[in-house]
Amino acid sequence: MNVADSNEIGRHLKAKGLVETQDPQDASIYLVNTCTVRQHAEDRAFSEIGRLGRWKAKRPGRKVVVSGCAAERTKEYLEDRFPFIDLVVGAKSIENFNEIAGRLLDRRATDEDLDYAVPAVNEKVAAFVTSMRGCNYSCTYCIVPYVRGREIYHSIDQILAEVRDRVSEGAREITLLGQTVNSYRHGQHRFADLLRAVAGIDGVERIRFISPHPYYMTDRVIETMATVPQVCESLHLPVQSGSNTMLKSMMRNYTREHYIALAGKMRQAVPDMTLSTDIIVGFPGETEEDFRQTLSLVEELQFDWGFVFKYSAREGTPAAELECLPQQLIEERHQRCLELVDRIALKKRLDLVGTIQDVLIEELGVGRTRTNYKVHVRRESRNLESAGRAQTIKYMFGAKRKPDRAQPQQTKRKPARSASPREAQAR
Ligand code: 5AD
Ligand code: SF4
């Protein structure tokens, strides 16, 4: 969602004649698009912003813009702590970014030597298109409904127009985005209709969507995934916990049994599908038995990969009122859960060895399977890529290491989010 927002902001700025740059030293505008879902993300954004005081002082006329969820939640604090910030645009106002930033850029007349630039955005072959914003759920740990507001749906026409724009810029794969993307409704249209409409656009070869909520994985959506060829065989379906007690306390609106039944239905309808998930460990009140229920769910469903998060209390959410578990216990459970998720993920990747997959090349030497594994293409296969134009190649997976040596040895590792769990072993 944040990447898509950054891209959207980038497009607005480019439309105003700005040029993007990879190098902050060349830039005249530095945009920090922030996330507040977990404390760690917010802390990283604040330290990045802290460094910009010196960046700004180096050249007159430079501007610092802070946008996104953390900006929405902490606007006053940000302005107070970092007085050099020129503009704060909260997540609820991203759609009005053009107008708001217009005011900033209108001052350009007084900054004669200003040569605006934005961070580089790269979404040529695989593009994100936002179909809805906000969230009507009230998961008790989650800050999103507070910083992004209630659900707002774009019309099918508006979404299709954006899809056409992205295709004309070179996109072959479209990922529809929304906090609960499959709750989409506009007039008579529901999410399954949206998928079919996007598939009807010439040039769209692959469709993905993130993040769906289990509650809205209706039979119509499943049937659409199974029958519309453009919709990829991959589903990221956050489960959060395998314990019904925790799911209830999180207010997730489904049970372990519902989720398992749904996964079974999905896999039956789309047999080669990869299924991935999000898990939170250490939610307040989580007992060892609750946690084991999560581990057993992971074992039972054999997720192809997963993101495991340590519970992070977000001020203002109902769960933040509850007593937190000791941090050390959260760390331990995080480690145990990651090890299990990663062990299964590795086994699944090794199953790909010797198979032939369609890989859509996104940049030189790197592509993605329909099932959403990122693939580093062997050097000798690279001549299959035509210069400057993306294409889908048939790619035979090879093992980087022998399977029997490839068991995960690590006892300590980086958080799953940054560890690219979808990265395949092919090289
Ligand atoms: N603590 C930990 N993880 C969280 N997530 C959302 N809020 C929190 C929180 N307070 C995770 C959920 C969600 C993903 C995007 O982030 O797993 O699916
Ligand atoms: Fe947050 Fe729950 Fe909404 Fe997802 S569905 S954005 S976890 S409140």
Describe, in plain words, how this protein is organized in 3D:
- Helices cover 35% and strands 19% of the residues.
- With 427 residues, the chain is α/β, with parallel strands linked by helices.
- Among the domains are: 2-119, 3-Layer(aba) Sandwich (Rossmann fold), CATH 3.40.50; 122-232, Transcription Regulator spoIIAA, CATH 3.30.750.210; 356-419, no CATH class.
- The strands form 7 sheets. The chain has a 4-stranded antiparallel beta sheet with strand order 18-17-16-19, with no helix packed on it. It has a 3-stranded parallel beta sheet with strand order 2-3-4, sandwiched between helices.
- Strand 10 (185-186) and strand 11 form a beta hairpin.
- It is globular and about 60 Å long.
- The two termini are 29 Å apart.
- It binds 5'-deoxyadenosine and iron/sulfur cluster.
- Iron/sulfur cluster binds at residues 135, 137, 139, 142, 144-145, 179-180, 213.
